[in-house]
Amino acid sequence: MTNGTAPQDSTEAAARECVVSLIASLADNKAALGRAYADWGVSAPTLESAVAAAAMAQDELGHARSTYPVLKALAPDLADDGEVETGRNLALLDRELPDWTSLVAANLVIDGFLTTFVASCAESSIPQLAQRARKILQEERSHRIHAEAWLRRLCRAGERQRSLMIERVQEAWDHAARWIGPDDDPGLLGAIEFGMLDRGAADQREVMREWLAGSLAAEEVTIELEEPREWSQWDPERRRWSP
Q1: Cα separation values, 85 from 49, 208, 213, Å
Q2: pLDDT for 172-183, tens place per residue?
Q3: What is the secondary structure of 41-95 as a DSSP string?
Q4: pLDDT tens by residue, 63-80
Q5: Domain boundaries, the chain
Q6: pLDDT on residue 2
Q7: What is the percent of the chain with per-residue pLDDT over 90, rounded to a whole number?
C-alpha cells in the first residue's frame, strides 16, 4: 500500500537537506571572511579602515560561531561540537585576499550575497534559523555602509584603481553568485514551499545585481553581472565553484 504522505515527506526532506547545506556553508564562509578581515586589521590603508576591518572580523567570526549551533541542531553529524568548520567556504576565500580592493569586493559581493540569503531566512519556519538571521542582519548594516563608502572611494581614485575595483567585483560575483545554487534546484524550491526561506536563487541574485549595478552606476561605472549559466564546475555538496 502506498503511503499518501510519502511524496511530501520526500520533498520536505530534500528541502531540509538543502537548507542544512546552506547553513553549513554560510557558517564556513562567515568564518573565512572573519579571517580575511582580520588579516587586514593591521595593514589596511588607513588607521580608520584598519579598525573597521578588525571590527568586521569580530562580527563575522561571531556570526560563524553562533551559526554552527543552528547547524548542530538540524544536522548533528555535520558539526560534532557545534563549532567545527565543514569545508564549505567559497574557493575564493581559500587563500589570502591579495589587496585591499579584494577585501572591499569580498565585503560588497560575498558578504552581500550571504546577507541576502540571511534576509530570506528572517521569517523562516525553522525557529533557530529565523532567530539567528534577525540578529545577523542587525550587525550587517555597518558592513554594508563600509563597503559602499569604499566602493565610492576606490572608483574615484583614478582609472587604474577603478579598473581593479571592477575586476575584483566581477571575480567575486562569479564565485558568490553560484553559492545559492541553480534556481531550479528541487531542494531550494522545496525550502521555499515549506517556508524555510522566502526567496529563490534568481531572486536573490537580482537583489544583489540591482544593488551592485546601481552603486557602480552612481560612480559612472557599468558592469555586466550575468546570471550564471555554467554549473559543471560547481560542487553542490560544498556550494563552491572552481573556475
Answers
A1: 28, 26, 33
A2: 999 999 999 999
A3: TTTSSSHHHHHHHHHHHHHHHHHHHHHHHHHHHH-GGG-SSS----S-S-GGGSS
A4: 999 998 888 888 887 655
A5: 10-241
A6: 45
A7: 82
> What one-letter code names the amino acid at 207?
V
Collapsed DSSP state (helix, strand, coil) of residue 235 = strand
d(CA 107, CA 111): 5
Can you tell me the distance from the alpha carbon of 167 to that of 161, in angstroms, rounded to the nearest whole number? 10
- Contacts of residues 72-76 at CB distance under 8 Å and 24 or more positions apart, as own/partner, are 73/128, 74/16, 74/19, 74/20, 74/23, 74/126, 74/128, 75/20, 75/24
Span 10-241: which CATH code? 1.20.1260.10
Grid coordinates belonging to 42: 593591521
CA 53 centroid distance within chain: 18
Backbone angles phi, psi at 18, to 5 degrees: -65, -45
Note the pLDDT tens digit of each residue in 142-177.
999 999 999 999 999 999 999 999 999 999 999 999
Residue 220: left if φ>0, alpha if ψ -120 to 50, beta else—which one?
Answer: left
Pairwise CA distance, residues 155 & 77, whole Å: 45
Residue 167 is which amino acid?
E
DSSP assignment string, 155-220: HTS-HHHHHHHHHHHHHHHHHHTTTT--TT-HHHHHHHHTTS-S--HHHHHHHHHHHHHHHHHTTT
Per-residue pLDDT band at 7 (split at 50, 70, 90): low
Global pTM reads 0.92
